[in-house]
Write a structure and sequence with these properties.
The chain is of the alpha+beta class and 240 residues long. It contains eight helices and six strands.
């Protein structure tokens, strides 16, 4: 009897063991809080590397380039103010959007500018639904004579003025979005000097670098926010 009691006491003193379901819930909770627990500069780093394939350069090897952060916009609790039109904002609100985070980057020659945005949703399922809604043609902005408005709805570009950042005024030439956990990561890019008269699709090099820069920055942000956390263990994890 004493041996059984001793075993029971030992089990009680051991660290708590989580079920697979509990582990997944805790990990999802940790990921969903990152937008609040990380500093803005951690989510949007000062520089992000990206590469151009050798085929675009007509060279034997790819080229590594750097995107430079111009500035970080104030957090938008009203998600509609962080996207391109009211329909997209209403759709995000219905999905439970909590905030939109945005920052703007330029390439090293300051020829191209891009805004990356993160819409924070309650769960991965709601983020996936919201992202599918952003891609619907009925949400596309209308009336742009140069075609930028016919892009899918998405993040509203952010412009920053100042002695360090200058003023980047650009029209959306490319736009896209994807999800990582409860986050919808959106990006829009264009010529930094506002050259809407030159569709980027007509310039192979510009299209490639603009796209690679935008994708590189967006993937960097997603990797930070959506990275898988360490398996929860007691003590220290929620529920311990």
């Amino acid at each position: 009897m004493f041996a059984v009691s001793a075993v029971g006491l030992a089990v009680q003193l051991l660290p708590r063991q989580f079920t697979v379901s509990q582990q997944r819930q805790i990990e999802a909770w940790q990921v969903s809080r990152r937008w609040q627990t990380l500093l803005a500069g951690q989510i949007f780093p000062a520089t992000v590397s990206y590469s151009l394939p050798a085929t675009v350069l007509q060279d034997a090897s790819p080229l590594t380039l750097t995107a430079l952060r111009v500035g970080i916009a104030p957090q938008q609790a009203n998600c509609a103010r962080g996207v391109t039109n009211a329909a997209a904002g209403a759709m995000l609100s219905r999905a439970g959007c909590r905030a939109v985070l945005r920052a703007t980057y330029v390439n090293s020659t300051r020829s191209y500018a891009m805004t990356v945005g993160v819409a924070v949703l309650p769960t991965g399922a709601e983020a996936a639904g919201a992202n599918a809604g952003l891609a619907q043609p009925r949400l596309a902005a209308a009336g742009d004579a140069y075609g930028a408005g016919r892009l899918t709805a998405g993040v509203s570009v952010v412009r920053f003025a100042g002695p360090a950042g200058e003023l980047y005024d650009y029209n959306r030439q490319i736009a896209a979005s994807f999800t990582d956990g409860p986050y919808v990561v959106m990006y829009a890019a264009g010529y930094a000097d506002g050259r809407p008269r030159v569709p980027v699709s007509q310039d192979k090099y510009a299209y490639s670098e603009m796209t690679r820069m935008a994708e590189g920055v967006a993937q960097s942000v997603a990797a930070t926010l959506g990275a898988a956390p360490a398996p929860p263990r007691c003590p220290g994890a929620p529920g311990c």
